[in-house]
Write a structure and sequence with these properties.
The chain is of the alpha/beta class and about 350 residues long. It has helices at about 1-20, 20-35, 35-45, 75-80, 125-135, 165-175, 200-220, 235-255, 295-305, 320-330, 340-345, 350-360; strands spanning about 50-55, 55-60, 65, 85-90, 105-110, 115, 150-155, 180-185, 225-230, 260-265, 285-290, 315, 335-340. The structure holds flavin mononucleotide. The site of flavin mononucleotide has 26 residues, from β4, β6, β11 and α11.
Length: about 350
């Protein structure tokens, strides 16, 4: 099964790589969204069953799709068929956001990397919720270990930082019916207002304001999905330490009431040191793929030490093989996510990573 997929993707990849990166991306997404039997046959792989409970949620395995590939939630059945344990959709802000002019994605093929400046969901929360309703999510409600859904929330570009919580609150309220976990994107290199406060008092204030929305929602719906902060790999050590201390203090205090905070490390990077000699390296946007592997391993290691054992970390960035996934878990991550690896390696990577993690149980 794995071999057939590898051969199919090897045959398809030169065709996709001969196209402009965004064109190839759009074409692949429309194939996946069409969810035809042929496409499903090409991408489907049996899911590795390796259930694990993290942040109060049982994930069928530890390999997820990172945010940004299926911003709109159009391709959920095909993506679930690839064997992911969880799929993150978004980033989505309350209102749709127009994208800047192309080119918006560059491949740095020799570095197995991408640079992108694709914006947030172009339609906003309303069409995203319509899509989840159309798919009748969850896809497999009778399964004891259904594939899990993360909703990645952002605020609109025009929203001032002082009003960001209101945008996140709208996202939390609109999607709580479907979300198994939430991500708050505070690290998009393409939007300057998405960042986490960097002093301890303003950070505490910010986290408390979000917790108030979560308490109100828990009262209304009975649901308290865990919430992950998605951070930049470019944060200074001091900023990482301040964040870890604030989360740790909060989780000691708030966790008994069931409000769970975790971290996704990390988003794309604005740095270019690792790819300086590659074509397109000077392009604006966020760098993803292999050059993130080492810095994100180091970041996860630092955060694990500072967060202690009880705060979950999803390790995202530069996973292009089963060995990369295993190394990321060894640095202290609980779950991993992929995006760029899927472009360079194809859907086979999902099973390879999940199997690599199964073998270290
Ligand atoms: C084209 C593209 C679009 C992305 N869009 C988003 C997004 O909307 N929200 C987000 O939180 N991360 C987004 N990301 C970042 C990924 O979720 C991930 O954090 C990053 O690419 C590192 O993982 P990777 O090296 O496996 O790609 C995007 C990445 C790419 C390549």
């Amino acid at each position: 099964m794995g071999l057939a997929h590898r051969v199919a993707y090897r045959a398809l990849r030169p065709l996709l790589f001969s196209l402009d990166a965004e064109r190839a991306h759009d074409l692949t997404l429309s194939w996946l969204a069409g969810d035809s039997r042929l496409v499903r046959g090409l991408v489907a792989l049996p899911r590795v069953d390796d259930p694990v409970e993290i942040a109060g949620v049982v994930f069928p395995n530890r390999v997820g799709l990172a945010a940004g590939l299926d911003k709109e939630g159009r391709c959920l059945p095909a993506l679930a068929a690839m064997g992911f344990g969880f799929i993150e959709i978004g980033s989505v802000a309350p209102q749709g956001e127009a994208w800047s002019d192309p080119p918006r994605i560059h491949r740095l093929t020799k570095a197995r990397a991408l640079i992108n400046r694709i914006g947030l969901h172009r339609g906003g929360l309303e069409p995203l919720c319509a899509e989840l309703t159309r798919h009748r999510w969850p896809l497999d409600p009778r399964s004891a270990t259904p594939v899990r859904l993360g909703v990645n929330l952002a605020c609109n570009v025009a929203t001032r930082a002082s009003h960001a919580i209101q945008d996140y609150a709208l996202g939390l309220r609109a999607t709580i019916t479907w979300a198994d976990y939430f991500t708050i994107n505070v690290s998009n290199p393409n939007a300057s207002n998405l960042h986490v406060p960097d002093t301890r008092p303003s950070l505490d204030h910010w986290l408390t304001a979000i917790d108030q929305v979560r308490i109100e929602l828990a009262d209304l719906t009975g649901k308290q999905p865990p919430l992950f902060l998605k951070i930049s790999p470019d944060l200074s050590s001091l900023a990482v330490q301040t964040l870890c201390e604030a989360l740790r203090a909060r989780s000691d205090r708030v966790h008994p009431e069931g409000l769970y905070w975790g971290v996704i490390a990390a988003n794309t990077s604005a740095r270019r040191d690792a790819v300086r000699d590659h074509p397109h390296a000077d392009g604006r946007g966020g760098l993803s793929g292999a050059p993130l592997r080492e810095p994100v391993d180091q970041l996860v290691e630092q955060m694990r030490k500072q967060l202690g054992r009880h705060i979950a970390i999803i390790g995202t960035g530069g996973i292009l093989s089963g060995d990369d996934a295993r190394a990321r878990i060894a640095t202290g991550a609980d779950l991993v996510q992929l995006y760029t690896g899927l472009i360079y390696r194809g859907p086979d990577l999902v099973r390879e990573a999940a199997q690599a993690l199964y073998s270290i149980r």
